[in-house]
Amino acid sequence: xxxxxxxxxxxxxxxxxxxxxxxxxxxxxxxxxxxxxxxxxxxxxxxxxxxxxxxxxxxxxxxxxxxxxxxxxxxxxxxxxxxxxxxxxxxxxxxxxxxxxxxxxxxxxxxxxxxxxxxxxxxxxxxxxxxxxxxxxxxxxxxxxxxxxxxxxxxxxxxxxxxxxxxxxxxxxxxxxxxxxxxxxxxxxxxx
Length: 192
What we know:
Elements: H1 4-7, E1 12-17, H2 37-51, E2 55-60, E3 100-104, H3 121-127, E4 132-138, H4 140-153, E5 157-166, H5 170-182, E6 186-188
Parallel strand pairs: 1-2, 1-4, 2-3, 4-5, 5-6
């Protein structure tokens, strides 16, 4: 169990992955109960702000007719299309003005599931003395998983906020948790 007010420390960063309207109930690619991560993440965001821990928020930002969409032979329905309402962060997510936004999924020739995939995030974190990242968001078995695995490959300590993420499928969530643990990530539930 982790209390955000005592768990976060200097050398940490909080990464909020893809908490966008299209991934929440009513969106184009909804994750069941995806909106339930918002109040949990808001507690972490408040604690990070209070402690001076940097906050990063990644977002899918696909061009129309992106290669990951079914119409182009991909796996997903159109979602998080640039400048659409569905691509916006969830309206109840309390991201402060100083949040560092990471835009990905913009390439025409490949998908980018990880917040680290060709974004320069790893180098930026190192430049700012970050050693450990706390990660939550959507979806646990796709973009959260990819972000966690890349963070570990880049040598960062990783804490996954388990109650601040939801999977596309239950089985996918179980597999993702195993894969993240095997990569050396720690699983933390927020203390209530």
